[in-house]
């Protein structure tokens, strides 16, 4: 399934309390559960006035639907083409190259 980076411009998000972040998490999870679609929230980073989210989704449209239904804006949606880490610099052995290939339909 394709992976996406979602940038959400949410003024004051970096100052949210743990309770407010937990409430936002519950709201997002409830919408995801009700969507009955191929979409999964992996994790997010809260930084300044933005929240950066990593999602796996069958389409960008599902991410936009989640944003609309949850009330959390999807300011920018970018498909992830590869995942690298510090070990990548030493040369990726077979199986360690974690390039995200476009999803194919069906078996």
Describe this structure as you would to a colleague.
By secondary structure, the chain is α+β, with helices and mostly antiparallel strands. It has a single domain (3-99), classed as 2-Layer Sandwich (Alpha-Beta Plaits). Helices cover 27% and strands 30% of the residues. The chain has two helices and six strands; from the N terminus they run βαββαβββ. It has helices spanning 18-35, 60-70; strands at 3-9, 39-47, 50-57, 76-79, 82-83, 98-99. The strands form two sheets. The chain has a four-stranded antiparallel beta sheet with strand order 2-3-1-4. A two-stranded antiparallel sheet has the order 5-6. Strand 2 and strand 3 (50-57) form a beta hairpin. The chain is globular and about 40 Å long. Mean pLDDT is 87; it is low at 93-97.
Keywords:
two-stranded antiparallel sheet; 30% strand; 2 helices; 4-stranded antiparallel β-sheet; Alpha-Beta Plaits; 107 residues; alpha+beta
Here the CATH topology equals Alpha-Beta Plaits
CATH class bucket: Alpha Beta
CATH homologous superfamily grouping: ORF SCO4226, nickel-binding ferredoxin-like monomer
3D shape: globular
Which sequence of SSEs, written as H and E, runs from N to C? Answer: EHEEHEEE
The biggest beta sheet reads: 4 strands, antiparallel
Q: How far from one another are the termini? A: 13 Å
Secondary-structure content class: alpha+beta
Which sequence of strands runs across the widest sheet? Answer: 2-3-1-4
Low-confidence stretches: 93-97
How much helix, percentage-wise, in residues? 25-40%
Counting DSSP H or I runs of 4 or more residues, the number of helices is: 2
The amount of beta strand, in percent, is 25-35%
Number of strands: 6
Could you say what the CATH architecture is? 2-Layer Sandwich
Number of domains: 1
What is the overall pLDDT average? 87
Radius of gyration: 16 Å
